[in-house]
Amino acid sequence: MNPRKDLVTIDALSDEDIRTILDSTSAMKDIFTKSVKKVPALKGKSVLTLFYEPSTRTRSSFEVAAHRLSADVTTFTVSTSSVVKGESVHDTIDTLMSMKMDYIIVRHKNSGIPAVIARHCKASVINAGDGAHAHPSQAFLDAFTIKEKYGEIAGKRVVIIGDILHSRVARSTSTILRRLGAEVAYMGPGPLVPLQQHTGIPRFTNWEQIFEWKPDVIYLLRVQNERIDTPFFPVSDYHSAFGVTEERLRRIDDLNLSIMHPGPVNRGVEICDAAMDYRNTLINNQVENGIAARMSILYHLTPQTQSND
Amino acid sequence: MPTISKEEIEKALDAWTTHLLQAHATSKGGNLAIVGIVSHGDVLARRLVQKLSAAGCPAHYGAIDITLYRDDLNLRGNRPALRSSHLPFSTDDMTLILVDDVLSTGRTARAALEVLWEYGRPARVELHCLTDRGGRQLPIQPDYVAFDLSTVSEGKVVVHLQEIDGKEDISY
Question: What is the pTM of this model?
C-alpha cells in the first residue's frame, strides 16, 4: 500500500488500502497464538490516546494493539487535563507535538476534529470516532469479522438496526462493507433512518421486511442512553419494535443468521439475554478482532515524525 | 545469467534430506521441526518434511513471516504486506531447522531467530539455505548450504519454485 499518514475516514482509502489492512489483520491475529503475544514492529514509537469523549472499549483496544506492536503508550485523560481549563484543540496539538508523539488516536464529540489535528501535525492520526461522522477502525474490525465468519464479504447481506442518523458506526461500517461488495440495509425508528434517495441504501421499518430481504448478518447499534428519554426511545417500546426479542431470536436461529453489535450492549433494549449466548453471536469475536484490526491500522500508517523532527 | 535447473534443485533436495537424516538420525521425530521463512523457505521446508517422512523420519512443519521483525521497517516509506505464520507447536526443547532460499546479509536469519524464541525455547536451531550469495553483515553462518554461490554470484540470486512462481530454477 502507498505510504499514508492518517486514517480519518474509510472514504479516503483506496480499494488497495482497504484490502491490505484487512489482509494484514489476519496475520496480526496469528500473534495472539504465540506464547509471547508481541512483535517489535513499532519498538521505540510512541502512541498517544486522546479521548475527549468517554470510551473504555475502543481506547483499551487501541492500547492493547499498540502494546502488542511494542509501542510506548501514553493516555491523555481529558477530564483532568488543561482542556477542561479552556485550552484550545490547537494549543493541545502544539503541546502534544512537543512530546514527539508518532501516533495520535483521537475521539471527539465534534465531527472533523481528527481531520484538523491530522492536518496540523506530523504524527499519524487515527480517528477513533468523531461525532456522527466516522469510526473507521470499527469498520475494519466489522469487515474482518464478517470475512472470518463467511470467508468473503462480497455478496453478503447486512442489515444495520438502530439510530442510523446519529451513528458513526453505521456510516463507516456500511461504507466499508459496500466497498467490499456486500449489500447493506437500514432499519430503525422512522425519523432516525436516512431516506434511500440520500444514501442509496434500502430502508426498512419492521422485522418482517428484514426477514423477507434475507440478510446474513443482523447488526445491532447501541441505543444511546443520552437519547433514551426522548420521545424517539422509550426503552420498552424500542425492544418490542426493533430489538432482538426471544421470539425473533428463534427465527434468527432457524435462518442461521449472525448477530453483531459494536458494544457496549444494553441487554433488554436492543438485544435479549438469550441472544447474547446464541451460537452465531459474533460480539466477542468483534472485540478480539478489534485488537488485530487496530494493530494492522497502526502498522500500515507512516508517521512523518522521523524525517525532520 | 547462469542458471541452475529444476533437476539440479531436485537432486540437491535429495542430498539435503540425506544430510538431515544422517545428522538427526537420533531424533525420534517428535522433536524435529523444519521451519521455513515465508515466502520461499516455507515451500522448501514442506518438501523436506515430505522427503523425511517418506524416508521414515517424521518432522513437524512450520512457516514464519519475519516482516514484523525486520530491522529496516521504520526506514521504509511503506510497510510490506504481512503473511500468516504457521507454527502450531511449542518450540520448547525442539531441534529446529530454519530454512530459507537465499542467505546473504544474515539480517533475515537474525529476525527469524527472534521470532522462534517467541514460540518457546528450542533446544537447538540450525540454519539451512538453498543458496548462499555471500555479503554477510552479521556474525551468522549457515549449517548447511545446497548451492554456495558466494564466490560466483555478482549480484542478485533469484530463486523460482514451482508452487509459487509456476516454474523452477535459480539464476545468479
Answer: 0.90
